[in-house]
Amino acid sequence: MQEFIAFNEQRAEIYWWMSSLFARELTDADLHEYHGGEMYTFLSGLGMTEELKAPVEAFREVINQSNTRPDEQLELAADFCGLFLSTPKTGALPYASMYVGTSGLLNDKPAQDMNVLMNDYAIAQRKEFNEPADHLAVELDFMGNLIIMANQQDTEEKREELMQAQLSFVNTMLLNWLPLFVKECQNRDQFGFYAAAANLLLAFCKLDAAFLAGE
To answer: The pTM is what?
Structure first.
């Protein structure tokens, strides 16, 4: 049981880390951590899994390259804004509705579905993050909370029910649009930091779905 809890905590930590990465621009303090030993150790641990080895190495390489930019924080902030705070014609907007919605507009069915899920599981969106519910950062934060919720159950049946809910969420609310989002990031992100991060996220979600499915 303790192994189950510890493993779930590690999974939630990764989802929450990625949520923060796509939620806002990195600060100087964030970048100091990215170039420090703890991040190196964290990524090295992820890279020990064969399915994550290549995307982790690509992300680590772009982190090292980023450290050589003349004004790293400002340039990465500009990359973030150009990708995620622009328009569908010029950026890679991090909303599920832009990829699997029917109207091509924000707050389409994926956002409505997320609102229903957050209500069903009593998982609230952070008040300070005023974005539609199908924003990538919101979905990743929700997944992290769903994982920890499984740890808090008092019966195997309830834990298994929440593990199956996680599998359904990854498949129907993340993997249904992440490949398209990653492709847009790769096409639009000239420097490549966020494209590499998105690719690592996609690889992790695929791996996590396989784990949840018992493969």
So the answer is: 0.97
